[in-house]
Design a protein that fits this description.
Residues 173-226, 259-333 form a coiled coil. 55% of the residues lie in helices and 15% in strands. It contains nine helices and eleven strands.
């Protein structure tokens, strides 16, 4: 297994800087208050194991200090629920069953994996170099092959379990959809049966009405002929009188009153003829109207029965769609969990297991504060007025924000100063940084209680 040492500071091309310049940049990143000075400072190396697996490289804390906590969700037995749908043919049973399906997790458990890290190592590896010797202490490695095996098996099992649950949910989704289609087909068959049943009833009722009218037609014809014939002579006489009266009125031999009386007499006879039809069919209307009400009721009953089934079909679709939406949301959560597990496996350009030592600068001050500087990317020669209005974010930036996970633990470590012995070299580096346009301290004495 190879061991590489990452840099405390690199340039923007990830080239390693002079060791003392690395320290100077780390010191300039300390957020010291006014009159606050360093009592002691040290570079500490944290060993990280990059363990090659079939899924990628696991990033592991060799000191077994950092713990990753993963919340595992327990879901209902979707496969068992799916098996219950194969025999469902009743609409209300389907609707009730689907509504009761719980797609949320029913419980959860927190899995603590000591030594597992979720940090970005690609940039760190870019800064890593082989070295014959180093001048700072490295934290003790405590991780064993058994620890690595337990971590990997837990991750593999967590992913396998959620993928199995996801597959079971897919089976349930398909079973619900198949049952929906089957029930809608049954409901469509019911509509077809209703149409068939009422078609026969409506045809029979229509024929009954037509027969009733046909049976009455001869009587109606005879009655109307008799009535009209009885009125024809009267109409002829009345028309003749009205014609003569009109001539007399036009000739001025009679007055308007007599003329209007003649017109009224004609209108009365015409009204009598008009009423012949109504009078003749009166005795048949009640029966025909009664039969028509029966026919209307058949249409209404048919439409009501079909509408009830259509409503059931809509409810089946609505319930199934709601379930599908809830299931897709549950699937998204499960797929997100799979992606989260996959994040613990990094794709790195390494041939085999590798240890990477990541350096950190720890500084304890006369005000009781403890500061930690993580590896930095130095921005090089200052541009414009940066040196006059100096901000640490302008001098450098963290190599990876994910390395902040070590800071709290590093603050707890007891350290011995291993910086002051390089004061001359660090002072030279500080001068170099100042020459590159950055506002800097003059010497290490400016920030140390004693140098």
């Amino acid at each position: 297994m190879q061991t590489y040492f990452a840099s405390l500071a690199v340039d923007q091309n990830y080239n390693e800087l002079n060791f003392y310049k690395q320290i100077a940049i780390a010191l300039l990143n300390l957020d010291l208050e006014r009159r606050e000075k360093i009592e002691k400072a040290s570079i500490i190396g944290w060993p990280i194991l990059l363990k090659k697996t079939d899924q990628g490289f696991l990033v592991l804390d060799e000191t077994l200090t950092i713990t990753s906590k993963i919340v595992k969700y327990i879901y209902p037995p979707f496969k068992d629920i799916a098996s219950e749908f194969s025999t469902i043919n009743d609409t209300q049973t389907f609707i009730s069953k689907v509504k009761k399906i719980n797609l949320d997790h029913i419980s959860s458990a927190e899995i603590s994996l000591v030594g597992l890290l979720n940090i970005e190592m690609e940039k760190v590896i870019k800064t890593a170099r082989k070295k014959e010797e180093i001048s700072y202490p490295i934290l003790d490695s405590k991780i064993s092959e058994h620890d690595v095996k337990v971590i990997n098996e837990n991750l593999v099992n967590l992913k396998s379990e959620i993928l199995t649950t996801l597959t079971s949910l897919e089976v349930l989704l398909k079973e619900v959809e198949d049952t929906r289609i089957r029930i809608k087909r049954n409901l469509s068959d019911q509509i077809e049966e209703i149409n068939k049943k009422y078609k026969e009833l409506i045809e029979n009722k229509t024929k009954e009405i037509e027969n009733e009218i046909q049976n009455a037609s001869n009587d109606i014809s005879n009655s109307i002929n008799n009535e009209v014939n009885s009125k024809v002579s009267k109409l002829t006489e009345t028309l003749t009188r009205q014609a003569i009266t009109s001539l007399k009125y036009e000739g001025g031999t009679i007055g308007k009153t007599e003329f209007e009386s003649s017109n009224k007499e004609l209108e009365t006879v015409i009204d009598e003829i008009r009423k012949i039809k109504d009078n003749v069919i009166e005795k048949y209307l009640e029966k025909v109207r009664y039969l028509k009400r029966d026919l209307d009721k058949l249409y209404a009953d048919r439409n009501n029965e079909i509408e009830k089934i259509n409503n059931m079909m809509r409810e089946v679709d609505n319930v199934a769609n709601d379930f599908r939406n809830r299931a897709n949301k549950a699937k998204e959560n499960m797929e997100s969990f799979v992606k989260y597990i996959d994040l613990f496996y990094e794709k790195l350009d390494l041939a085999d297991d590798t240890t990477v030592i990541i350096p950190f600068l720890i500084a304890k001050t006369n005000k009781g504060n403890v500061f930690v500087t993580t590896p930095q990317i130095y921005k090089g020669k200052a541009k414009g007025i940066f040196s006059k209005v100096f901000r640490k974010s302008e001098l450098s930036e963290p190599l990876s924000n994910s390395l902040q996970v070590f800071v709290d633990q590093l603050k707890k470590i007891e350290i011995n100063d291993n910086i002051k012995i390089y004061s001359a070299q660090i002072n030279t580096a500080l001068e170099e940084i100042k020459a590159e346009g950055w506002k800097s301290i003059d010497t290490l004495e400016d920030i140390y209680t004693s140098a």
